[in-house]
Amino acid sequence: MDLEIMMKNTLRAVLLSSLLPLAAHASQELSPWYLGAGVGVNNYEPNCDQKTMKVCGEDDPYAWDIFAGYLFNDYLGVELGYRDLGRAEWTDYSDKFNDVGVKGPTLGLVGFWPLANRWSLSAEAGAINYLIYNDKAHGSEYYSDTDIAPYYGAGVGYNFTDNLKLQAKYRRYEGLDENKWDTLEMDSNYWGLELSYRFGHKAMAAPVAPAPAPVVMAPIDTDKDGVTDDMDLCPDTPMGHKVDGKGCSLYSEMTHNLAIDAKFGNDSAVVKSDSYAEVEKLANFMKRFPHTQVKIEGHASNVGAADYNMMLSQKRADAVAKILTDKYGIEPSRVTTQGYGVTRPLIQGRSAAANAANRRIEAQITVKETAPLTK
């Protein structure tokens, strides 16, 4: 009995010390600590089924337990408890009355498997530091012994709230033996209900503050073209330019026609030196617009045979092209020539004035130059 008192005092001290962190967590978020108690029925094996048992007596199979637990995470925890597995009575063949009871502190691991709708499964394994004894009633001999025996079990639980949980439990205790007098060798099966309370509460998410109303800024038009900066794809448009809906300058296309007058002597394909300025003017124009091409047209006066004049006009066009490429550096690929002979006269007839006007070179060049539209 002294051992039983000592074990009770030890368990009481352990439980009290375990409650200290519970109080600290009680006002905080959901704590890993919980307390609980359970009641059930226990069946010792063997019980009134041995050959030495003559008559079965009135059993008191009701068992109870209290426990405290700590969760390492949502799936695994450890429990410390105290359990009373109830009593059994029988009369042996020597007509002696016998009874037995088992109780003691326990320590074990428990695992949880959460299911939908607040349900969960559990499994546990541990050991009980049991005291096995009798009440020495009706003249029976008194015996008492202590030892450690393993247990394991399973259960199904339901959470009424985040804190309150009810579980249905089954446990199997192995090797509940009385070795001191070699009186009993027993196992037992327990079925019961347990109610536990987990301390603390789930942390509530902080309310999300509404986003401040956006500050509406007046639209800005940096380049003053009438299109605000948020829509302006050309933010540096020069002042005075007309722009499209995207803020980019509008351009018009202009066409230039250029004709030069290169002089030749009668029946000659040699460009007169005073005509070089005309060829240079053409070269400068083409350098200004490097993507242009020129067609140099040769023409002749209506003197002599038409075939000869056609050949002469072609030579005159080729002579101007050669000066354009060799002297002024225009790429040959940009220059073409065509002789027209007497087919395109400026003045009809064979007068001196007509012959001088029709003996000529024309450079037909057209360039499309874009120019910004202005307001």
Give a verbal description of the structure.
This protein has helices at 2-25, 276-288, 306-326, 352-358; strands spanning 33-45, 53-56, 62-71, 76-92, 97-114, 119-133, 144-159, 164-178, 184-198, 251-258, 294-299, 335-339, 360-372. It is α+β, with helices and mostly antiparallel strands and 375 residues long. Strands 1-3-4-5-6-7-8-9 form an 8-stranded antiparallel β-barrel. It has a 4-stranded mixed sheet with strand order 10-13-11-12. Strand 4 and strand 5 (97-114) form a beta hairpin. The radius of gyration is 58 Å and the shape is rod-shaped. Residues 1-7 and 13-28 have low confidence and may be disordered.
In brief:
With 375 residues, this protein is an alpha+beta fold. It has four helices and 13 strands.
| Structural class by helix and strand composition | alpha+beta
Residue windows where pLDDT falls under 50 for at least 5 positions:
1-7, 13-28
State the oligomer.
Answer: single chain
- Helical segment tally? 4
Pick out its properties.
alpha+beta, 17% helix, eight-stranded antiparallel barrel, disordered N terminus, 375 residues, four-stranded mixed beta sheet, 13 strands, 4 helices
SSE map:
Layout: H1 2-25, E1 33-45, E2 53-56, E3 62-71, E4 76-92, E5 97-114, E6 119-133, E7 144-159, E8 164-178, E9 184-198, E10 251-258, H2 276-288, E11 294-299, H3 306-326, E12 335-339, H4 352-358, E13 360-372
Parallel strand pairs: 11-12
Antiparallel strand pairs: 1-3, 1-9, 2-4, 3-4, 4-5, 5-6, 6-7, 7-8, 8-9, 10-13, 11-13
